Amino acid sequence: MRFALLLPVLLLSAGCAHRSVTAPPMTAAGLITPAEAVHAANDDPRNGISGTFLVTVRNIDLTGHGLYLNSETDYRHQANLTVWLAADQADALRAQLDNLPLERLVNRRLLVQGTARRAKIVFSTDGIPSDKYYYQTQLRLNDPRQVRFAP
Predict the structure, then answer these.
(1) Is residue 9 part of a domain?
(2) Residue 1, Cβ neighbours under 10 Å: how many?
(3) In which domain, by residue range, is 30 found?
(4) What are the record keywords, sorted (predicted)?
(5) Rounded to two decimals, what is the model's pTM?
(6) What values do phi and psi take at 139, rounded to 5?
(7) What are the tens digits of pLDDT across the range 15-60?
(8) Which of 4, 52, 73, 75 maximizes the CB count within 10 A of its CB?
(9) CB 22: neighbour CB atoms within 10 A?
(10) b or e along 65-88 (b: 16 or more beta carbons within 10 Å of the residue's beta carbon)?
């Protein structure tokens, strides 16, 4: 009798223990998605993750500090992977990518070779750092040849 009373409670509690698992993004074997890069860089901020990354460019910014290709429209989004290249290499990247104007890279898929690491970005006003910051996952490149179009 006691077992009959406990059975519904046990079945209900077992159902609560079930966790829904989200399938990882589908990519070709060996390619790293921005989501995987961000996760791995957070797990090991010092070493990050190295390999070939499949990045769909959602936002581009060219400043005196560099060329930024972002996987999210908001570069501060925690799921964003930023591909960075020195500003003086922007023309070389353009040449590497069939002389396509950089603004036309939005919504294009790129394969990028390198290491993604977590970087602390400190907010500043007039060059004076504040105590406010966020973390960004960056894939800093040394050479435009590390980037090519994805098939």
Answers:
(1) no
(2) 5
(3) 23-149
(4) Signal
(5) 0.79
(6) -115, 90
(7) 444 433 333 444 567 999 999 999 999 999 999 999 999 999 999 9
(8) 75
(9) 5
(10) ebbbbbbbeebebeebbbbbbeee
